[in-house]
């Protein structure tokens, strides 16, 4: 079936607008947004509002670093104190959690060298209701 020209124009216009909107959304998170997330993560850590999404997985990864789960807040404080938006290792826009417990919250991943542990750490977190949810915490495997 051949559509009249006005329909073809509308279809072309609609696809172009949708494509442009996706490109604009893909530019996030900005440096300012990442700085805000880092600041909120530090605030949550300082007030003891830290939770581990899957403590057994994180504990297993920590064994490879010769650390215990009780060491994570101190190491995380070091990392969050040193991390800057340029250390962001997540997707643009940020990946959304598919885990029911985290809802569809955004996940923020960073890679940074840890002086205390002696290697590059990959950590991923989400912020939900003023809580810092640690989703991933291990040596960066993508070197």
Summarize the structure.
The protein has 4 helices and 4 strands; from the N terminus they run ααβααβββ. With 143 residues, the chain is of the alpha+beta class. Helix 2 runs antiparallel to helix 4.
Beta-strand segment tally: 4
The low-confidence parts are 3-25
Query: What are the secondary-structure elements, in order, as H or E?
Result: HHEHHEEE
Question: Order of strands side by side in the largest beta sheet?
Answer: 1-4-3-2
Helix count from the secondary structure assignment: 4
Classified by CATH, the class is Alpha Beta
The CATH architecture comes to 2-Layer Sandwich
Roughly what fraction of the amino acids lie in strands?
A: 15-25%
Query: Which structural category do the helix and sheet elements fall into?
Result: alpha+beta
Radius of gyration: 20 Å
Straight-line N-to-C gap: 54 Å
Envelope shape: globular
Overall pLDDT metric: 84
Structure description:
It is a single chain. The protein is an alpha+beta fold and 143 residues long. The protein has one domain: YaeB-like fold (2-Layer Sandwich), CATH 3.30.2310.40. Helix content is 40%, strand content 20%. It is built from four helices and four strands, in the order H-H-E-H-H-E-E-E. The protein has helices spanning 5-25, 31-46, 55-63, 72-82, and strands at 50-52, 108-114, 119-128, 131-139. Strands 1-4-3-2 form a four-stranded mixed sheet. A hairpin with a 2-residue loop joins strand 3 and strand 4. The chain is globular. Residues 3-25 have low confidence and may be disordered.
């Amino acid at each position: 079936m051949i559509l009249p020209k006005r329909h073809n124009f509308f279809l072309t216009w609609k696809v172009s607008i949708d494509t442009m909107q996706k490109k604009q959304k893909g530019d996030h998170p900005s440096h300012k947004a990442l700085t805000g997330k880092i600041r909120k993560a530090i605030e949550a850590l300082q007030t003891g509002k830290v939770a581990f999404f899957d403590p057994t997985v994180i504990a297993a990864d920590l064994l490879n670093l010769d650390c215990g789960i009780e060491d994570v807040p101190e190491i995380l404080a070091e990392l969050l104190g040193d991390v800057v938006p340029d250390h962001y290792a997540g997707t643009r826009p940020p990946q959304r959690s598919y885990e029911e417990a985290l809802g569809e919250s955004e996940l923020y991943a960073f890679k940074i060298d840890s002086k205390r542990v002696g290697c590059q750490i990959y950590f991923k977190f989400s912020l939900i209701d003023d809580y810092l949810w640690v989703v991933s915490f291990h040596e960066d495997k993508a070197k």
